[in-house]
User: Which sequence fits this backbone?
């Protein structure tokens, strides 16, 4: 991934300049402000000076800044200086925002907004709108952030503030970018560039727009267009002598060349970016560039140089307190040491990576909650669709209940028949009526077997009723197949589809056991998945699996003492967003395979089941994978690979299965299904089927 430093910037929250304008250096300005505060007799002048001092101290000493701003607010309110009160509220909001206290920041920004609305002060109102927007964005509430970005744009258009209209286009594009709406982001970035060209504007806003456009084309893997925009940005940054922008462009260009396997050009540009970031003393960006350089060296087999780059990145990230960079550094060091067979070091760094990842995950919870809450407006617009989902869920619950009862009765009947048969068999021995009674028992057993088989066949029809209909499959996934071949009449494997919040979800599930016991678990798994996604509205695969595991453990009354049920399931689940060519994946023991350009890439599931197990349960990993047109995605259970057969009576195995899928990429998905079915049946030959078989393939 490129070092998209511009993308990390959302709004530059505006600090209002007041009547006092002291043209000295930063330290001299602070001294001058303190002198004014000590000599001022007017509360208004003192409040203004204190507020300006708070602005100056905001980054270097936020605690002192807050004290100054609080004193200024008290004096301004005492003097009824409402304009200054509003300005102070903005400054306090900025201080709170710097501390990630976004709810508190919003309270102060809203007070400023209220005053500027009342007085029709459009410039002040624009400042409040921008600051409110950045707070909502930081909370993950993108719809609200977008709302205030557009409010700011409207004011700037009314004021004919052409210079800042371009900034609004950048802000709006950034919100769309973080939402994953790349086409909408590109639309506003291009509007901004068109306005820059019209007004002959060349500054950091212009290069920000160019860099972000390049990043979008990078995500789309259109590398020639990516380089075109990065080089345009580089030319302007050089013309402006803007070293930070130049360093960013070099790093981004180097990353694109790396993707194109042009290693000498990649190294040249990454080193250029690295040197500039080092000169600027920017430890976080230097560390990020070193991560890219380590990837370059590792790809070329230069493991010692890769290790050196990662160690430098670790030191700089620790000094800067940049835990995101530190997390990636630990991960890359673990992988590097694994590659070089230094397994102890690989394990140590993987432990560090896991610990910091868990910490960051917990910190992101509030943002994730805010982001989910922000979807409420969208959910309201989908009210009719939700009602249909709820009706479908209720229908599924009724069917699930009926199936569970039916299967339970079948099991009870089977136990009763077996017990009856054993009792009569003992009676035959005691009474010596061997031949006659054996014949009678044979007839009874045959009749009861027929009853059981009929009941299980009926259960099969009910179980099939809960599986998604083919027309749903082809509507949600037009170019796809589901190869489903149970070992017994009813199956412990099942597949599952859902549509929710603009996401298309699909899962391949392997429950403990097969036949009747497996079918019981499949009923439970299907019902729980419907509840988690269709009723609770969860669409992130990792979180779906976390909740599914909790529900299974609770419903089966499992515990760690080893005395209870160890039943559960393995699963691979995907959440597709086809509009943005992306899939999120999580797995419990089962992976996802991505086949692209004749090669296969595996995204592993976590080595833990849905249910209780011996090791400590950890949150399931949520993978995000960018897709390109023509990619093929596969999820499956273990039945295909574990089938015995062939000339030596061995398992088919995963590697042979993967090679087969790679060889089928010139065929349509339904043709692939036919080939897979024929292959596994030919392989099986006279051997019995050992497990349920489920393979799902989806073409993007």
Assistant:
């Amino acid at each position: 991934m490129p070092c998209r430093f511009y993308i990390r910037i959302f709004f530059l929250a505006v600090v209002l300049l007041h009547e006092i304008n002291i043209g000295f250096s930063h330290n001299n300005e602070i001294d001058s402000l303190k002198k004014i505060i000590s000599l001022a007799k007017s509360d208004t002048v003192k409040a203004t000076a204190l507020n300006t001092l708070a602005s100056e101290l905001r980054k270097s000493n936020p605690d002192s800044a807050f004290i100054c701003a609080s004193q200024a607010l008290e004096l301004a309110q005492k003097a009824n200086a409402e304009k200054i009160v509003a300005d102070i509220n903005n400054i306090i909001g900025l201080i709170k925002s710097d501390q990630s206290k976004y709810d508190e920041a919003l309270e102060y920004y809203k007070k400023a907004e209220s005053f500027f609305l009342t007085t029709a002060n459009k410039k002040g109102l624009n400042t409040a709108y921008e600051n409110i927007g950045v707070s909502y964005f930081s909370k993950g509430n993108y719809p609200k952030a977008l709302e205030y970005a557009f409010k700011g744009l409207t004011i700037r258009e009314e004021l004919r503030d052409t210079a800042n209209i371009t900034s609004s286009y950048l802000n709006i594009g950034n919100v769309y970018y973080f939402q994953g709406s790349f086409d909408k982001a590109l639309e506003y970035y291009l509007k901004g560039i068109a306005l820059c060209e019209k007004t002959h504007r060349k500054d950091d806003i212009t290069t920000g727009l160019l860099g972000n456009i390049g990043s979008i084309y990078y995500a789309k893997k259109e590398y020639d267009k990516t380089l075109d925009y990065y080089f345009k940005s580089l030319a302007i940054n050089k013309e402006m002598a803007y070293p930070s922008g130049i360093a960013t462009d070099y790093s981004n260009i180097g990353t694109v060349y790396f993707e194109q396997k042009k290693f000498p050009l990649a190294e040249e540009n990454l080193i250029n970016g690295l040197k500039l970031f080092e000169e600027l003393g920017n430890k976080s960006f230097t560390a990020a560039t070193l991560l890219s350089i380590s990837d370059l060296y590792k790809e070329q087999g230069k493991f010692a140089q890769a290790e050196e780059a990662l160690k430098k990145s670790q030191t700089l990230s620790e000094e800067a307190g940049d835990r995101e960079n530190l997390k990636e550094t630990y991960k890359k060091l673990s992988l590097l040491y694994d590659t070089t067979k230094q397994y102890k070091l690989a394990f140590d760094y993987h432990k560090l990576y896991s610990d910091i990842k868990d910490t960051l995950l917990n910190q992101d919870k509030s943002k994730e909650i805010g982001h989910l809450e922000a979807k409420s407006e969208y959910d309201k617009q989908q009210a009719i669709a939700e009602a249909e989902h709820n009706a479908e869920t209720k229908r599924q619950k009724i069917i699930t209940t009926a199936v569970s009862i039916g299967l339970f009765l079948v099991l009870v009947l089977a136990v009763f028949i077996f017990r009856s048969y054993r009792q009569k068999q003992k009676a035959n021995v005691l009474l010596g009526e061997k031949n006659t009674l054996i014949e009678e028992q044979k007839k009874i057993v045959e009749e009861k077997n027929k009853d059981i088989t009929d009941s299980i066949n009926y259960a099969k029809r009910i179980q099939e009723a809960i599986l998604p209909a083919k027309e749903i499959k082809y509507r949600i996934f037009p170019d796809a197949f589901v190869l489903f071949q149970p070992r017994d009449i009813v199956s412990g494997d099942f597949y599952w589809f859902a549509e929710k919040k603009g996401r298309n979800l699909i899962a391949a599930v392997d429950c403990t056991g097969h036949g009747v016991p497996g079918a019981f678990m499949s009923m439970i798994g299907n019902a729980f998945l419907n509840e988690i996604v269709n009723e609770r509205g969860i669409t992130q695969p990792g979180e779906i699996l976390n909740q599914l595991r909790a529900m299974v453990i609770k419903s089966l009354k499992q515990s760690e003492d080893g005395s209870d049920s160890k039943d559960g399931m393995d699963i691979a689940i995907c959440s597709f967003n086809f509009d943005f060519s992306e899939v999120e994946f999580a797995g419990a023991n089962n992976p996802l395979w991505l086949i692209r350009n004749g090669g296969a890439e595996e995204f592993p599931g976590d080595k833990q089941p849905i249910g209780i197990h011996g090791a400590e349960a950890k949150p399931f990993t949520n993978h995000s994978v960018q897709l390109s047109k023509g990619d093929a995605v596969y999820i499956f259970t273990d039945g295909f690979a574990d089938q015995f057969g062939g000339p030596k009576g061995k398992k088919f195995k995963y590697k042979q299965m993967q090679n087969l899928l790679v060889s089928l990429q010139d065929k349509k998905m339904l043709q692939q299904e036919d080939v897979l079915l024929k292959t596994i049946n030919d392989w099986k030959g006279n051997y019995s089927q050992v497990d349920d078989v489920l393979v799902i393939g989806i073409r993007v």
Summary: Confidence is low (pLDDT under 50) at residues 1-26, 364-385. The CA atoms of residues 1 and 146 lie 26 Å apart. The longest strand covers residues 503-511.
